[in-house]
Amino acid sequence: MIFILKALWFLVTPGFANIAAAISGYIIPGFSIPVDFGKTVGGKRILGDHKTWRGIIFGVIIGLLTFKLQKSLYVEYEFFRNISLYDYRESSLLLGFFLAIGAIVGDLVKSFFKRRFGIKPGKSWFPLDQIDWIAG
């Protein structure tokens, strides 16, 4: 049971980064420049309009803030030290950045393949829509 709790605690940073990227359009209107700049490969969009620079930037910022909060909780409370997979005191924000950007890149890679298979943006592609950010 403790291992599951540790795994969940580890996934908080990439999870929040992934969620933040997805909801960024509701929080920050505008700045919805597609990551692929509208380019196509084989007549299909590379990623689509739903993958934006706003989402990447907002996702990374929220991921970094989440990591910083986890680090503070780790330093302050023994409970969080007991459920952590690594020592946050020795971890720089660079680790938080990699956790956040990894989740977002995982989502982008999945979206690339969704476009190749002709799956519309927003349409579920089980189980990859549920695990892309974890794989990243």
Task: Describe this structure as you would to a colleague.
With 136 residues, the chain is mainly alpha-helical. The chain is built from 6 helices and 2 strands, in the order H-H-E-E-H-H-H-H. A two-stranded antiparallel sheet has the order 1-2. The chain starts with a helix and ends with a helix.
Quickly describe the structure:
The chain has 136 residues and is mainly alpha-helical. The chain has helices at 2-10, 12-27, 53-76, 78-82, 93-116, 128-135, and strands at residues 40-41, 44-45.
Can you lay out the helices and strands and say which pair or pack?
Elements: H1 2-10, H2 12-27, E1 40-41, E2 44-45, H3 53-76, H4 78-82, H5 93-116, H6 128-135
Helix pairs in contact: 2-3, 2-5, 3-5, 5-6
What structural keywords apply?
mainly alpha, two-stranded antiparallel sheet, 63% helix, 136 residues, 6 helices, single chain, 3% strand
Computed over alpha carbons, the radius of gyration is 16 Å
Tally of individual helices: 6
Determine the structural class based on helices, strands and strand pairing: mainly alpha
- How many strand segments? 2
Straight-line distance between termini: 24 Å
How much of the polypeptide forms β-strand, as a percent range?
under 5%
> Strand order of the main beta sheet, please?
1-2
Q: How do the helices and strands follow one another from N- to C-terminus?
A: HHEEHHHH
> What is the average per-residue confidence, as pLDDT, rounded to a whole number?
91
Unreliable residue stretches: none
Biggest sheet overview: 2 strands, antiparallel
Helix content: 55-70%
Overall body shape? elongated
